[in-house]
Amino acid sequence: MQPNSLLCPNLNLYKKGKVREVYDFDDKLLIVATDNISAFDVVLPSLIVGKGALLNKISNFWFDYSKDMIKNHIISSQVEDFPKECQQYADILKDRSVLVWKTEMIELEAIVRGYLSGSGFKDYTKTGKICGIGLPEGLKESAKLEEPIFTPSTKAQEGHDENIDENELKKVIDPAIVDLVKEKSLELYKKASEFALSKGIIIADTKFEFGLLNGEVILIDEVLTPDSSRFWPADNYVPGQSQKSYDKQIIRDYLSTLDWDKTPPGPELPEEIITKTLDKYEEVYQKLIS
Fold this sequence. Notes:
- The chain is α+β, with helices and mostly antiparallel strands.
- The protein folds into two domains: 1-102, Phosphorylase Kinase, domain 1; 104-236, 2-Layer Sandwich (D-amino Acid Aminotransferase, Chain A, domain 1), CATH 3.30.470.
- It has helices spanning 51-65, 90-93, 118-127, 166-169, 175-198, 249-255, 271-289, and strands spanning 13-16, 20-25, 28-33, 36-39, 42-47, 74-76, 97-101, 104-105, 108-115, 129-130, 133-134, 144-150, 153-154, 201-213, 216-220, 229-233.
- Strands 8, 9, 12, 13, 14, 15 and 16 form a seven-stranded antiparallel β-sheet that branches. Strands 1-2-3-7-6 form a five-stranded antiparallel β-sheet. Strands 4-5 form a two-stranded antiparallel ribbon.
- Strand 1 and strand 2 (20-25) form a beta hairpin.
- Helix 1 runs parallel beside helix 7.
């Protein structure tokens, strides 16, 4: 496997993202999690071997956990159930791929925040609000919010997603769909964060994506992985500062020590950083399923 090279070149490519490849099978899609890693929107030349399979397993765990709350797009994660064209890549696809229904994507990032961190904390320090939602004065970085909040963003085809006020969002997306997405996102976050906390993991914030299948809103993409969420070890949590993290912060911190302008090509990662990053993904998976 090489960074940026297709894992299944003989299949019909639908979309290639930074860390996932999607192949087209008419009304179905095959989503393949690669071992690529991106930081600062740049795909790095180093692979985190095993990362794709771990992320796929974590996401599938949550899809199964949440299936009674909302339907999702999963058809199968077993390679033998995939179309016959996929079987030539069975060894590659094992554990890192999933066959799903193709949906009409709802063009928003459904972000839920339970703690004050990242861009949300930056917005709060400037305005006292996040996405138009006023918060109490005097909150510290990483503070636990009284109640989780829904802070959607637009889905940018290029560049960065942008936070958007819920009322503004309803001007471009059916308000009934926005209300349902908000309701389900908050429900998913609350139940998942309670479960994760019982396993020693704080889910500070996360993003969900939804699509329409035969007119019904369903959960799609990936769910509650370290790539789509901020996971903190609960036993190290100290409000008032940035937190130790289960996500790729290890890589960001390393890259920030280099003389690199955060444009392609990215630098190679030392073996020590690769190993530490993979260990964090493995630790999350093991904690969740134990």
